[in-house]
Write a structure and sequence with these properties.
single chain; DNA polymerase, domain 1; 3 domains; 20 helices; 48% helix; RNaseH_sf
Amino acid sequence: MTDDEPAAPELRPLLEPAGGVPEVTSTAAALDEVTERMAAGTGPVAVDAERASGYRYGQHAYLVQIRRAGAGTALIDPRELPDLSGLSAALDGVEWVLHAANQDLPCLAELNFTPSRLFDTELAGRLLGRDRVGLGPMVAGELGFALAKEHSAADWSERPLPESWLRYAALDVEVLVELRDVLAAQLAEAGKLDWAEQEFEAIRVAPPPSPRIDPWRRTSGTHLVRDTQGLAIVRELWHTREIEAERADISPGRILPDAAIVAAAQAKPRSQAALAELRPFKNRGAARRLPTWAAAVARALTLGPADLPAKRTPLGDTLPPPRAWRDRNPEGAVRLENVRHDVRELADSLDVPQENLLTPEFQRRIAWAPPRRVTPETVSIALTDLGARPWQVDLVSEPIARALLAPPRPKEPEQAPESADEA
């Protein structure tokens, strides 16, 4: 910091919920009381959920936090109360405020707890061009509070939950509505409130994601496996691990790390003893189920050529990675470079991240297979069919139409070295 720069304002630590740490709601009678309270409250309701990512199988909620003016804060145990439809009905028509809603809405939907209106403070921050959009930085930057985040990666499936964790969970919704009010005013001032409302609604009504084709191919390190027999081992171990992880309700990576799967695929051990000699299988977690892993490897090694997986994912409706376009669709590669460049320039001028102005998937699809006759109108129709929101279509249709018809962009000249030492 120079002498001319003002000192950053000192943050006020947010250490204790205004009404204290509430008891965890874990009985039907207590939930009825919370429901009545929340229905009688006023204004938006702040909502959050804590999962046990990295510890348990799936992305289920292990604690739900809600806060509303006039009703206070409630902490709900969804393992004891797996149906929150009554609470959801009581809040029908009330705006829910979440941070990074797309992370929490799926696990809340499992509890029949779904909003009819939504405000996402993280997405609001992105549309306002904020560099840091985590809840802690947003609360600090907009409200001047220091919000501790030390328990964000905790195992929330633990019971009983420690008092310090419950305090942390209650503080996550303590000032969420206040943050929403500040951001909504800024969005309105920037002329972006309508954009935000369209984005919030798109998140709220988004269907569950379609199952991935060959999800086992996302195993970290699979690119090191060069042959189809090795890929068959990856596939068999991945599916076996999923079965074991779901059965034990443990995160797959804790049952068997990806490094172990890749090591087996490269070594192709022909016996359980040989598998046990591989370093990743010597740790206690992998060794505990060694016969199961050895049987999976053996099944993969007995497959005939017709049953081995292809080296690449069958495309189906999936586009190849952009690095492969120059070989498979060279004209599309040129179009994609132009589209990305022009969308990025427009995004910079609007102070919006490029991926929020138009999702990269839509940029790739319009470049891979543009309309037969490219005009702003046909591009607008194509983007709408893909799922782009009206505000996005209005802003990008004309620039993208120009980009699709533009010649290849000239290569940036390489900068000459400034000295003989650099050369």
